[in-house]
Sulfatase
Amino acid sequence: MFDVNIFPWHSKWLARKKYLARLRDNFKFGLSFSCLNRRPPRNQPQIAMSKPPSFSRQISSTVSSLLAAYYAGPYVLLLRMALLAILLLSISRLGLIAWQWDRVSATGQVFDMLLQGIRADMIMICLWLLPAVLLTPCLAKTRIWLPLSYAWGLAGLILMLFMELATPSFVMQYDLRPNRLFIEYLEYPKEVFATLWGGFRVPLLLGIGLCILVGYGFARAMRVRPASVRTWPLWQLWATWPLVIVVVAMGIRSTTGHRPANPALFAITGDALVNSLVISSSYSVVFAAYNMKHEARSSEIYGSLPASRVIEEARQWPWFTGVKFDSQLPTWHQQDAVRRRERPLNLIIVLEESLGATFVESLGGLPVTPRLEALKDKGWWFEQLYATGTRSVRGIEAVVSGFMPTPAQSTVKLSRSQHNFFTLAGLLSDQGYHTEFIYGGEAHFDNMRSFFTGNGFSQVIDIDDMPNAQFVGSWGASDEDLFNHAHQHLLSLHAKQQPFFSLIFTSSNHEPFEFPDGRIDLHEEPEQTVNNAVRYADYALGEFMDKASQSPYWHNTLVLIVADHDNRAYGPSLVPVDKFHIPGLILGADIEPRRIKPIASQIDLGPTLLSLMGVSAAHPMMGRDFARDSHSPGRALIQFDDYFALLEDNHRLTILRPEKAPVAAVYDPLQKRVSLLNEPPGDTAVEKALAHALLPSILYREQKYPGRGPAMSSGTSTLSQSP
């Protein structure tokens, strides 16, 4: 029944058939730990060992013996893979906990993290094992089963190993384990590899080396001699298979509750990073991929409200008092410009890559943006402006379309928003404007070209249209080259007396932080750091604004300078609010200096710009026109991973969590700290936050955020009833 090669280092000693028979009689199940050190009787000839066995070989053979002892049969390699995976993920988790010990220890939940971590690991392991287990009855009696189960188990181990090795660099950038952003970036291997090679070369090479080394160890540990695997009779195979299926299914479900376990179940602390350490990176990415198939209903993870109640709540802000909304398109309304102009102004939006308040001294950051600081006294300066998310496409969505954030991908990348989705470009092109997007990199990145060309932008200019760029880095032309090209292009449009809207998107302040030498006094050494890159981006912006302010198009052009998001969103809280604080400045034409003090969101910029430009139009944007109302208490909408937060003017936060009760918190802007409150948020606060989380999903799913809608009359009237 059993082959002696289950102990490969001992097999040469067992030369006599008589001794083999005695071994089988003494050890009924074919193995015993004592036999590892047992020598043959004196009257038995001994055969000298040519070479002592390696430690890894001994461990591998011992594990094989144990599994055979318990009749693992055809499941021997799958079970071995599960044990090795638990070992791998547990060691990785311990390493990450040690690395982030200050934040982990502050939660007081170390033991629970380790215990729940093994539970979460079993979900991922069972998910991986399920396809092989389903095939077992059909293939276990064939010759291909052992090679197939070996390859499948080894592939799972290497995948989990790769994800764990990729985790530290991802955490340093996003303060979370790999999630949906990891998947989104895989669509752009060229840009990602350039970033990794330029900014993370040592971790990349070290990770590849460790992956090869540990992967080889797994390959050795997974080996098994076919003779050592006990063959099950067909009846035993089919009789036990349903039980194995049930065990694997329960491992995936991991609970007897109404709903199966998901990452939200393991969010046991008030620190988003610490919560992410409980689960494995492979499980985090797999769950994110699953959720991406349900983008249209992504916000429903927070709960539900009747659509009529959602719409009613979203209209309750004071700046919508007296506004009449369309009965079919619930956010469509007429906005009349506060500034009446014979000829509306041109518009330039400079979207600065990753330039958060972290780098603006007057907003509590580092002194690395002196040119922006000098400009703030020449226009409308937003003191409490907050980004809606952590990605460039989220910032584009908010600034250009005025669209609220969701847990799903930005609408820049979603299928139902590639045509007839509202943008400022679509509105202005209908009024005779030339609309364009100017970017120093490749415009196809993050699906920007497709989104823009399908929604009102008549021209897209990128690196291919800048053959004379003096400096080209991993992400394209330098900001200087970008602004020089844009300036010449704007001069030509002005010479043609063509009104224009130009969206200029910078990229120099992006890892690996490449920029021309000799332009700035470095803030620190070495040269390629984020603070130096921000200083260069600020320099290039200042040079462009100097040229623009002296150009013939300046007197009839409005300019918005705003960040898409901060460089990194991190901190020991569920939602690091301070990392969503960004600068915003409106200047140009006849704009007088002014400080905007209430809390504001990126979605407020579009309506404010239209009003200052002198453009009256109907649109679906639910942002606030600060030209009409600059004194009412404000609000900001923040999407951080799977958490949605509504920040109101008293700095109180209502934080929605997937499939968990909401929590209340207070944000201290001076200390830059979010403190969770012991008491839960009130029903009114929860309903308000939930409505703002659900509304954009409803508008996207039902395609009620169109580029063109019904014509509406100017003036004001009472609020219409919710549809």
Q: What stands out?
A: The longest strand covers residues 660-668. The mean pLDDT is 87. Residues 9 and 53 are 6 Å apart (CA to CA). The chain has two domains: 68-294, 297-702.
